[in-house]
Design a protein that fits this description.
The chain is mainly β. Helix content is 10%, strand content 48%. The protein contains two helices and twelve strands, in the order βββαββββαβββββ. The chain has helices spanning 29-35, 115-125; strands at residues 2-3, 6-7, 13-27, 41-43, 51-64, 70-83, 103-112, 130-131, 134-138, 142-149, 152-160, 173-175.
């Protein structure tokens, strides 16, 4: 594949996150189902039956083997999903364990700050994204992310900074569109 005029043959991809905010919300399940590209992807449902969605801001440093490092911002809206013939029971996919259904994530819409990131998202991962400025204000106690496209405000996310950092060793599948 060609990335920013350079031929990239695959190799190792390293994504280092420099700063991020991930917020979870619920939405009407039918609305989320309508946005999923395959009948075998199902929204994960919370206790109240609503679908789990996420909003992300991330400041990345991406290293593609053989190419110079690229820093970019990303902001997106996604849905927590499972893959299979039928939806998983409510909340069950969120619990770790070998018997857990195939918990994953489907990006509904993603904005990135440069063409290199857009190309890699599309060619390597099959994820559609658009280029837009991701404006970030870092306050002492908060972080605010704002994305505007040619029509105006697309997304705004403000989060309080806390001393709690949550990490996980569990893998999360990120589903994308690929023909191969």
């Amino acid at each position: 594949m060609t990335v920013d005029g350079h031929e990239y043959g695959g190799g190792r991809t390293e994504m280092l996150i420099r700063d991020s905010v991930l917020a979870g919300f619920t939405a009407e399940p039918r609305a989320v189902e309508c946005l999923l590209p395959a009948d075998r992807l199902h929204p994960v449902r919370w206790f109240n039956g609503r679908a789990l969605v996420s909003v992300l801001y991330a400041d990345w440093l991406m290293r593609l083997e053989g190419l110079p490092p690229v820093r970019f911002g990303e902001s997106g809206v996604g849905a927590m999903v499972t893959f299979g013939d039928k939806p998983a029971p409510r909340v069950v996919p969120l619990y770790a364990g070998a018997g857990r259904p195939s918990l994953g994530h489907w990006w509904l819409c993603t904005a990135v700050t440069n063409n290199v990131a857009r190309e890699v998202f599309a060619q390597a991962w099959g994820e559609w994204s658009f280029i837009a400025p991701v404006l970030v204000e870092r306050g002492r106690d908060s972080l605010r992310c704002r994305v505007e496209d040619r029509h105006g405000l697309w997304l705004e996310l403000t989060a309080s900074r806390t001393s709690k950092v949550r990490t996980s060793e569990d893998a999360l599948i990120s589903y994308g569109r690929r023909d191969d």
